[in-house]
Design goal:
Chain A contains 17 helices and 29 strands. Chain A is an alpha/beta fold. Chain A folds into four domains: 132 residues, no CATH class; 220 residues, TIM Barrel (Alpha-Beta Barrel); 207 residues, Class I glutamine amidotransferase (GATase) domain (Rossmann fold, 3-Layer(aba) Sandwich), CATH 3.40.50; 59 residues, Immunoglobulin-like (Sandwich), CATH 2.60.40. In chain A, strands 12, 13, 14, 15, 16, 17, 18, 19, 20, 21 and 22 form an eleven-stranded mixed beta sheet that branches. In chain A, strands 7-4-3-2-1-11-10-9-8 form a nine-stranded parallel beta sheet, covered by helices on one side. A five-stranded antiparallel beta sheet of chain A has the order 23-24-29-26-27, with helices on one face. The mean pLDDT of chain A is 97. In chain A, strand 26 and strand 27 form a beta hairpin. In chain A, helix 5 runs parallel beside helix 8, helix 10 packs across helix 14 and helix 14 crosses helix 17. Chains in contact: A-B, A-C, B-C. Chains B and C meet through strand 16 of B and helix 2 and helix 4 of C.
C-alpha cells in the first residue's frame, strides 16, 4: 500500500511539464509548495517525445523533471505514456491503428488509439515500460507506476479477428461447443471452421448502440475485448515488475465504465486508482456508488482518487464551475468512501488543443490569486493537518449490492422486452435508497464472499453464472437476506435461457414462477398493492417498465398488482429459505416503495445507519485501530443540523468536540472521530 | 388453392426443431396435438445445417422431422432455407455478401444477407431448392413450399452495378433514352456510355433516408432492386416447379413493405402469404388495410396468414403482451379480410440469440399450463369446429382504393414541396374512413379492372403511368365515381413532370388547374369552407400540409379556402364527366371532412356498410355459395351492442341464432352466417 | 463595375435551355421580353454536354443561345460549367471524386463533387474556362463571367493530404513550428516528419459536427480547404483574364457560408455576387445582415444579387410560397443594402430531378398567366422606370460590426465551455439591434480600416490576430468606441491561449480581468443589475449561457451580476482609453439590454437612424451624387405609418412627393429620394 509511505494523504495530480518551458517549471514548483502538493503524475502522454523512432529513447528531460520534483519534496506517479502512440509509429506500422465498429481503418489522431492486438503496439508499449522501469528502478522519487491512461475502446481489425478465434478456441475447445453456446442453429449460423467466425460489428451482427442479432457472440466479443486490453496492461505491468518487484503499479479506471470488466482487471493491480468526473446532473449518490465500486474492486482496499477537476470540465455540453467549497466537499466524499489520495487533472492548464478549457490548479492567468487556487491550497493545508489519521482505514458494511460487468453487457444487448431497462440505473435505485439513510454498502462481485453480509441485493440478476445460485442459496440458508428483482435468473453465462420457467436457477430460492413478462410503454403504469402493511409500507405504490406475471410456489405474497389483466397476481414476494429470506420485486417500483422495503428489511436485520441526517446530508464512516471516522457532508447549499444522539465526537477538521445537536454549514464537511461501539 | 386440401383452416406456424433435441421433438408433437395444430413451417433457417459445404447435403434430420409430423397428422410448409447463407459460403465466396448504401462490404452475420445478384448465391440457392423439391416431390406431408423468408434489403456491390446497367439497357435501349428519362442535362449528368452509370447510393446521389439528387435514377434503382430479388425468388420457384408442377409455392410477404413491388411479385406466387406484426400503437384499421392489400395482390384470392405472434414481440421498443383474447380477435380479423390459415411465429420459443424474447406457442417454461398456450388451444379447437365453412370465401367490394409501389417510391423521394407527405398515411386516411363505417374496400393496383367498382379512390396519385389517365376517364365516363387528392397527376413513370399545368394528365377528367402548391408548416393550418351543405358537411373544416391553388376549368366548386391570400380559391371540386363524377381534394383535410364526404359519395352510389356498429366494433364480410359470413369484431375492452335491423343471423362460433339488438363482449368475435341478400 | 454598362439594374437569372428544345427557347424569349428580363446566366451545369471527352468541345448550341439572347436584347452572364464534372471524367480519372470526412471515396453523382486538389479537375476546369474565354472574348453579349457555381464542400483524399503538407510547409517552414503552433506535446502528437501529418477527419481528430481533439489542426485544415478551392477559382479566373483582361469575373457566394473565407476570396473577384435564400423562419434582419456582409466583402462596393427564388424553394422541409409582394419587397431589400442586379434562380422550371419543385419565372404550366409571372413582370417594369438612379450608389455607415471567418471556425470547434455558443447568432444579436432602429451598419473584416467608423462592435472576438489588439487600441485612443463581449481575447491565430489572464491581448484596452468563465445550462439564468441608470437602462436584465467572473482593472463597472456566488461581480464594464471608450459585455444579455445599451452608445456618438419607423418597417439608405435614397420597406402584412419629420422626399416608385406622416401598405416599398443633409 502506497498510503503507508507518507504521513498523510498524497495530494497533487497530472502534470504535463513537457508542454512548458524551464521558467514555467520553476514557477510550478513554487506554486505546488504553496498548495501543499506532494505528488505529480508525469509522462502520461509523452511517448512521441521520449521515443522519436524505433530505437531511440530520450529520458533526459524526464530525469530532470523527476529530480526537480523530488528535490522539492514532491513524489512522482510515473506514467508509461502508452495511451497514445507516436505519429511515426502509425505511419510506419499501420497495424497500431484501430478499425472501428463500422469497419473504418482509423488514421493517426486522438488518443486511446492503439489496437490492443497490434504486434507493434504490444512490442513497443512493453519496451517503453521496460526502459522506464530499468532507468528509474532505484529512484527514490517514484512512488507509483501508472500504466497507460484510462484504457478503453474497441477494435475490429484483422489482428483482433484472428485473436478472437484463438480466444474462443481457448474458451470453448471445439467449434461444436461454440455452436452450442451461441445457439447458432438459429438463423443458420452453424460454423464448421474457426475461420468462418468474424467479429460482431456494424458490418455483421450489430446495429445502433445496443443491438445484436446474436447476443452470445456479442457477449464473448465484450469479454475478449476487455481481456485483450488487459493483456496490454499486463505486458507493461510485468515489464515493470521484472525490474522492481515491489513497485506499486496501477492504471487509472473510470468508475462504471462499461467496456472493461474491472473486477477482473483489479486482480492484476497493486492498488485501484480512478478518475471521478461527475457531471452537472450526476446525483451525489451516484458518485458515492462509483467510489464504493472502486473500493469493492479489491474487496475493500482503499484506492487512489487519481483525477478530479479543481473546478471546470470541458467535454460536457455545459461546463459549469464547481461552486465554492464543492471541490473540497467532493474530495472528502471520495475519502469517506475509501480514497487515500486526492489528486487533480491537472496541475497546470494546457495552452492549446481540446483540453485547454479544462480546469487546473494553475489557471491560464498563471498566478495564485484565483478562487480555484485558494480552494486547492486550503484543502492542501487541511490535509496536512489531518495527517495520517484516516489513512488505510476501512469501511464496514453489512449490506452488499452485487454488480457484474458481464450481466451489464448481456442485459443491455438483449433484444426485448424493453429498451427502457438500464442495469446501472437499476443498481443505483437500490444503492440510492441505502445512501439516503446513510446505510453503508459494499459493491461486490460474483466472486466475493457473502458470509460477512447480512443483506445482499442483486438488482436485475439476468445472468446467473455457474454455481452462483447455489452460493446464494447457501447464503440464505445460513440466515442471510437476499433481494432481487424482475428480469433475474433468465440466462446462463452464454446468454442461453434457463428453461423450465423464470427465474430459472433462482426459482427454488425465491419460491416463485414468472409466467410472462409484460413490457409497459413509459407512460403506462401499474400499481403495487400491499396485502398487509409492512413497516411503513401500506396502501399502493406505482410501478412500471416490466411487470412479471408471477405465481407463488411457496413464497409469501407481500403485494399484488392493482391494475390490468394481471391485477391480483403477486408482484412482491418473500420466501423463507433455511434461516433466511429471499425477496423478489416483480416490477420497477417508485423510490418510496424501495425506501420502505429496504428500511424494513434492514431493521429486521438490525442494520443501523451511520447517523440520522437530514436529506442532502451524507454520513459515511471509515474504521481504523478501534476508531470510527464519520464523514458528515452537507451537499445542500444551506446550513443543516443533525443530532449525535448521545455520541461524543471530535471533529478533526476544526479540532472541536461535538455532541447533541450539531450544525453543519452549506457544502460543509466534518470528520467525526468516535470510539468504535 | 391449398385451402381446398383440408376441411378447415390450417393452424400452426414456424417450427425450428433443429434448435432442439429429440426428446423435445416428441414433447412438441404432444403439445401440437393439444393445441389443434396441423401445419408446421420447417427448414426456414437451416441452410448451413443441411449443406455443410459446396457438394454435401444432409437431409436425414429433415426427413425424420417431416415424417414425424406427418405421422402425427401435421402437414409441412417446407421452406427452402435461403434467407440466410451459410458462414462457409461467405468465407469462400465473398460475392454473396452485400455492400450497403454507404459502400461498406458486409461481413457474415444477421440474415437477409445475400446479394441478389451474387452468382454464388443464385447458384446455390437454386440448387438447394432443386435438391429439396427432388427429394420431397412425392412426400404427402408437404403442403406448401415457402421460398426463402421475408425477402428484402438492397445491395450496392459491383455485381449489382453491372446488373443495373443490363437492366437499364433492357428498359431503355439506348443511352440517349436514359438521358432523356432522367433529365440528365440537369446538373451536368449527361451519360455517353453505360459504364458511366453508377448505382445511386449515399456515395453518389443519395443522403439521409429519402433524399436524392436524381429521382429518376433512384426510382429505377428501386425497380431494379425489387426485380433482382424477384429473380432470386423465381430461380427457386422454377426449380421447385420443374420437379412438382402442381406444387403450391409462396414466399412470406410483409404487408406495406416498401422495397418490393408486391403487385409484380404476386403474379409469380401460387398463393399470397404474409406476416402480420402490428405494433402497440398500430390502428386496427391499418392492420385491416394490410390484409386487404394482401388479398388485393392476387385480385381477391384468399391468402395465408403465415406468421403472427401468439403474444409478445421482441424487436419493438416496448414489447407488451397481447391482452387476453386479442390474439384470437386479430386472428379472426385476418380471416375476415381473406386469410384461410392462421399461423404463428413460432411454435417453440428459442433458447438463445435475438428472438429468444419473441413469444411462442410453447414458451420457455416448456409446458402447456400457460395463458398463451391455453388461448392458442382454445382457438385451435374453435377452428376445428368452424370447419370449412368460410374457406375460399371471397370479399365483395364496390369501393376500390388504388395503391402503387412505384408511386410510393416516387412520392417519398421527392425533393419538396414538404417532408410531411407520407403516401401510406394518406392512403390509410381514406381507408380508415371506410373502415369506421364498415364499408368493404379492395386495394387495387394500376393493372386492376375498374369496371366492377362504383367508386375508385386514388390518394396522392402523383405518378400517372401510361394509359392510366385514359383508363380512369373511361371508368368515369361509364358512370364511376373517382376521388383523388392534391399532389396527383404531377409526373410520368420516370418522374418527369407532365407540363402544361397540374394535375397534368388528370386535368381534363378533374376539370381543374392547380396553379401553385403551397406547403404549410405543421403548425400552420387553413380551412375548407363549404359553399353549400353536402350531406352532413357544412360550415368549415381544417386542412393543411399542402394547399393547391386551384382554378376550376369546368368543375363545380364544392368548398373554398377560408384563409391566407388564396382565401376564396377552390379547395374541393367535383367534375361531371360522362355519366360519372371526378372529385379533387386540394389539401389534406381533417378526418371528419373525409368521413362526411365519403359518406355522401357512397350514399349517392348506393354503397351500403356491412353493418352499422358502434365505434371500435368492426364488421367485415366474406361470401361463399350464396351465403354471407359477417365477422363482427369488438376491438374495445368493454361489451358493445349493435342492431341487426331485421337481419336473421347464425353465429357460427356459439351456434346460436341472433336477431335484433346483439351484445358482443369486449374483444369478442361473432361470425354471423346470413343468406346473401 | 458592370452596373455602369446599362442604364438600369440588370434583371434576369439562371437559364438552362440545354434542358429544352428549340421551340421552347423561342417561347422563352417572348416571355423574357414580357417580364423585362435583360440578363440570363447560361452554361452553369453544361460541362458534360459541351465536353463529351478529353479532347472534344461542342460550343455550337451555346453560340446559338448567346446569339439568340443578344439579338433579343438580353446579355449573358456566362458560367464556366465546372461545378459538376462529367460522368466520363469520374469514370476515367477517379481522382476527381472526393473522399468524405468518413474516409469514403465518393462515386459519380450530385454536384460540387470535384476534389479541389485533383490534378485532373484542375487541368480540365482551367482548360474549359480557357476555351470559353478564347471563343467568346469578343462577343458583345457577354457581360459577366460566372466561374463555377456555389463553391463549397471538402475533401480528405490522398491528393488533399499531400497538398495540406505542402500548404503547412509554406505556412510554418519547419515541423518544429507546426508542433509549437498546434501544441502537439499535448496527447503525444509530436511530429518528426511532414509525412506523419494526416488530414483531420472523422477517422483521426474529429467526431460529430463540431468536435476536434486538436483545434489547431482543424483550423489549419479549414484554412487549407478554403484556399484549395480558391486556387481552383483562380485557375479559371486567370484563364479568362488571359484572353479578356477587362472582363468582369465573379462566382456566386452564399452569404454566411462557413467553409469559405469570403473576405479572402473577394480580393480575387471583380464583383461580388451571391444567392439569397432566406428560409421560412429567417428573420428579415438576418437577410439584411447577409446583404451587408456581401457589400462588406469589397469594402462597400455594390454587388450582384445573382439568385433568389421567384416564389418557392424545394430543399427546405416545408417549402411555402412567397406571399404576394414578398418577392418584390425582398428584391428591394437587397438593392437597399447594395445590390445592383436582381436575378432569379431560375427562368424556367426544370422538368425532372431534384429541383423540379423549385420555383421559376416560367412555371411548369408554361404560360404567363400565373401570379408568379405577373409579379416578376411588374417588378421588371418598375426597374425599367427606376432606371439608373440608384446604380452604383453607396451605403454610408458610422457603425461597423467585425466578422471573421477564422474566428467562426475557431469558436465553434472549441471543446468547452458550452455547446450553446453560435458565433453568427451572436453577431446577429447586435446587428438586429441596430436594424430595429434603422442604424446603418457595415460588416467589416480584420483588414478593414477602422478610422472611418465611430463605433466598432466585435461580438465574441475569441481569436485576436497579430496586430489587431493594437489596431483596436489605436482606434479607441483616437476617440472611437469599441464594444466586445464574453469569450473574447482568448486565443491567438493558431488557437493557443494568450496566457496571463483573459481577455488576453484586449485586457489593457478593456481594463478588466476575467478570472473564470461559468457556463450555464440553458434553463439556468443570471441577472445584469445596473449600478446606475444609463439612458433607458435601469434595474435588471436577464443574461446567461456564459458568465465571465470579472475584476475591474480600471474600467467603470456599469452593471453587476445579480445572482449566484459571483453576485456583485462586474458583468458590464466601460473603460476610458485615450479619447475613446471600450465596453465589455461579460455575459449573453436579453435583447432589451442590448437595445438600451446600443441606443445609449450611438446617441453618445451622435449616430442617427436613417428614419424612425414602426417595428417591422425597415429603412435603409444609399447615397449617390449628393442624394440620399431611403428604401422604406414594410415587412408586416398590414399598412403602417411613419413620420418624415420635416424631411421632403420624392418616392421614385410612385413619382409622388411625400412629407409629414406617410402610410406604407403591407409588404410595400417606397424609395425616397432626398437631398443629402
Amino acid at each position: 500500500m502506497i498510503s503507508s509511505k507518507l504521513p498523510k494523504m498524497f495530494y497533487g495530480g497530472d502534470y504535463n511539464p513537457e508542454q512548458w518551458d524551464e521558467a514555467t517549471h520553476q514557477e510550478d514548483l513554487r506554486m505546488f509548495k504553496l498548495a501543499g502538493i506532494d505528488i505529480a503524475t508525469l509522462n502520461v502522454f509523452s511517448w512521441a517525445l521520449i521515443q522519436p523512432d524505433e530505437v531511440t529513447y530520450n529520458f533526459e528531460q524526464l530525469d530532470q523533471l523527476i529530480n526537480n520534483l523530488y528535490e522539492s519534496g514532491i513524489y512522482t506517479c510515473l506514467a508509461t505514456s502508452t495511451a497514445a502512440h507516436p505519429a511515426w509509429m502509425a505511419k510506419k506500422y499501420p497495424d497500431v491503428l484501430r478499425v472501428d465498429a463500422d469497419g473504418r481503418k482509423r488514421k493517426f489522431g486522438g488518443r486511446h488509439n492503439s489496437c490492443p492486438n497490434s504486434p507493434t503496439y504490444r512490442k513497443y508499449s512493453e519496451a517503453i515500460a521496460d526502459k522506464l522501469a530499468e532507468r528509474y528502478k532505484d529512484h527514490p522519487g517514484i512512488l507509483v507506476w501508472h500504466v497507460s491512461n484510462e484504457y478503453g475502446g474497441d477494435c475490429y481489425c484483422e489482428n483482433c479477428e484472428a485473436a478472437f478465434r484463438v480466444w474462443l478456441k481457448k474458451r470453448y475447445g471445439t467449434i461444436d461447443q461454440v455452436n452450442k453456446a451461441w445457439n447458432t442453429n438459429f438463423w443458420g449460423h452453424t460454423f464448421y471452421d474457426w475461420d468462418e467466425i468474424v467479429l460482431p460489428s456494424n458490418l455483421s451482427e450489430h446495429w445502433g448502440d445496443n443491438n445484436s442479432t446474436f447476443q452470445g457472440i456479442s457477449l464473448d466479443y465484450s469479454r475478449f475485448n476487455s481481456d485483450s486490453i488487459l493483456d496490454c496492461y499486463l505486458l507493461e505491468y510485468n515489464a515493470i515488475k521484472k525490474h522492481i518487484p515491489n513497485s506499486v503499479v496501477t492504471t487509472n479506471l473510470m468508475g462504471f465504465f462499461k467496456q472493461l470488466d474491472y473486477f477482473k482487471w483489479a486482480k492484476h493491480m497493486d492498488i485501484v486508482s480512478w478518475d471521478s468526473y461527475p457531471g452537472l446532473t450526476t446525483p451525489v449518490s451516484f458518485t458515492a456508488m462509483a467510489h464504493d465500486l472502486m473500493r469493492g474492486l479489491k474487496d475493500g482496499q482503499p484506492f487512489m482518487l487519481m483525477e478530479q477537476t479543481p473546478s471546470q470540465q470541458n467535454w460536457q455540453a455545459y461546463n459549469s464551475l464547481k461552486r465554492p467549497n464543492v471541490m473540497r466537499l467532493w474530495s472528502y466524499q471520495s475519502v469517506a468512501h475509501g480514497a487515500d489520495t486526492v489528486m487533480f487533472f491537472q496541475l497546470r492548464r494546457s495552452v492549446g488543443a481540446c483540453e485547454k478549457f479544462h480546469g487546473a490548479v494553475i489557471e491560464h492567468v498563471g498566478h495564485e490569486n484565483t478562487r480555484v487556487f485558494r480552494e486547492v491550497s486550503q484543502l492542501g493545508q487541511e490535509l496536512q493537518q489531518l495527517g495520517d489519521r484516516t489513512l488505510d482505514a476501512t469501511v464496514e458494511s453489512k449490506v452488499a449490492i452485487l454488480f457484474d460487468w458481464e450481466n451489464w453487457w448481456a442485459v443491455e444487448k438483449s433484444s426485448g422486452p424493453t429498451v427502457s431497462l438500464n442495469y446501472v440505473e437499476q443498481v443505483h435505485k437500490y444503492y440510492a435508497s441505502f445512501f439516503r439513510r446513510n446505510v453503508q454498502v459494499d459493491i461486490i462481485s460474483v466472486d466475493s464472499d457473502l458470509s460477512k453480509y447480512d443483506l445482499v441485493v442483486a438488482p436485475v440478476l439476468y445472468m446467473v453464472k455457474p454455481g452462483y445460485a447455489a452460493k446464494l442459496e447457501e447464503f440464505v440458508q445460513n440466515g442471510g437476506t437476499f433481494v432481487t428483482t424482475f428480469f433475474s435468473g433468465i440466462v446462463n453465462e452464454t446468454d442461453l435461457v434457463t428453461l423450465g420457467g423464470y427465474p430459472g436457477e433462482l426459482r427454488k430460492l425465491l419460491g416463485i414462477w414468472a409466467e410472462e413478462i409484460d413490457a409497459l410503454h413509459p407512460e403506462h403504469r401499474n400499481k403495487i398493492v400491499m396485502k398487509d402493511s409492512l413497516g411503513k409500507l401500506n396502501g399502493s405504490y406505482e410501478c412500471g417498465m416490466l411487470c412479471d406475471l408471477l405465481h407463488s410456489e411457496g413464497a409469501d405474497v407481500i403485494a399484488e398488482y392493482g391494475e390490468d389483466f394481471y391485477q391480483g397476481m403477486p408482484v412482491i414476494t418473500r420466501n423463507t429459505f433455511g434461516k433466511g429470506e429471499a425477496w423478489y420485486i416483480g416490477s420497477d417500483p417508485e423510490d418510496s416503495f424501495i425506501d420502505g422495503l429496504l428500511e424494513q428489511i434492514t431493521a429486521d436485520k438490525g442494520i443501523q445507519p451511520v447517523l440520522d441526517t437530514p436529506a442532502g446530508v451524507e454520513a459515511s464512516a471509515r474504521y481504523k485501530d478501534g476508531k470510527q471516522f464519520i464523514f458528515v457532508m452537507n451537499h445542500n447549499a444551506e446550513t443543516e443540523s443533525y443530532d449525535l444522539k448521545g455520541l461524543e465526537a471530535h471533529d478533526l477538521l476544526t479540532d472541536t468536540r461535538l455532541s447533541g445537536s450539531v450544525d453543519i454549514e452549506g457544502r460543509g464537511v466534518q470528520i467525526l472521530e468516535v470510539n468504535k461501539a
